[in-house]
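Support request, priority: normal
Reporter: lab tech (M.K.)
Component: structure prediction queue

Hi team, I submitted a job for Heat shock protein 70 from Panagrolaimus davidi yesterday, and the status page still shows it as pending. I've pasted the exact input below so you can check whether something in the sequence is tripping the parser. The sequence length should be 76 residues. Please let me know if I need to resubmit or if it's stuck on your end.
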Amino acid sequence: MVDKIKIPLGIDLGLTNSCGAVWWNENIEVVANDLGSRTTPSYFYYDGIEGYVGKTAKDKTATNPENVFYRMFYFE
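Reply from support: The job had stalled in the queue. We restarted it manually and it finished. Here are the results:
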């Protein structure tokens, strides 16, 4: 059986960028995303088939802006 440890996690969901951090070895470590950046653009893209977040979603604003979400929306 693998021992499980509890690690505190913090998430900053910003309007422009977001990031996540963990408490590890008595320090706060900001987690890098898949591109190596410690912040991720707060963008979401979905076209009914595929979904992306971060820089990939932000890049879609050039070709398919109607399917990119990057501000606060209120749905009723």
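The beta strands are 9-13, 17-24, 27-30, 40-41, 44-46, 51-53, 68-69. The chain has a mean pLDDT of 90. Let us know if anything else looks off. Ticket resolved.
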